[in-house]
Structures are given as structure tokens and as C-alpha cells.
Amino acid sequence: MSKQGDRDEFIATMAGEGVPVDALRKVLRYGATLQRIAELQCSSDAADRDQVPCPQKFRHNKGTECLCRDYGSFTAAAEGGGGIHGTVPRVNVQEARTEARVLALLAPFNVVPIFNGDPRGAVLKLKVPSGRTNDWGRDGVCVP
Hints:
Helix content: 40-55%
Number of domains: 1
Strand order of the largest sheet: 5-6-7
């Protein structure tokens, strides 16, 4: 199927789940952004060299409180709590912001996003209330 055909099928499927078309267009745009970021993270040394200070927030479901802990640049304090936040690749911050936007956009429709950082497959899938899937793993609806 063509790229436009995939997009049209996605919009038709998700509109049937009760998600408005304007929200779906944003999801498609965010999905393309996450795909580009995943490709940069996997194959570009330049993306890893472009470091920014840790924003000290994000990570909605990864179990840690900031990006630099995930990246390994957080330095724990020797005495008691606290610590020193380090730097992280700019694309990691962009990824976290985009994931937060997707979560906020889809929450009112009871749709749960599934983020997969591997650019060889669907980087973003949506778990819908009806349980409908179109991926091989039967996880959710793939965002083209």
C-alpha cells in the first residue's frame, strides 16, 4: 500500500475509535517526528554530540525522574540525597517532549500510546479501547 493509503487507513480506523481527525493529524505528525528521532539516535554520532543541560523532568513511564539518569550523566551526591544533573543529547529531550504531547493529546479518548524506539518498525502504536490491532505482535494500531 502507498504511504497516503496507510495514512488514510489509519485515520479511518482511529476515527472509528472516536478520535477526531484533527487530533489524528497531530498524531501522524508526532509519529513522523518520533521516527526521525529514532533514526538519529541509532545512526548518528552527531546527534549524540549535540548535548544540552538536563531539563530535570520528563520520563512519564520509564521509572526515573529525569533524562540524565537514563542517559548516565547524573552524578549522585556523596552525602545524602540530591545530585548533579548532567547533559543529554538534544534529540532525547525532543523525544521526551513529543512523547508527553502524544500522551496529553490521546488521554481524553482513552487511547494509550506505545512508544518503541526501534526505527525498523512502528515507533508509535496506539492501544485502543476496542482492542483492535494491525501489527504482528497484536499490541495496537500502528501509526504510519
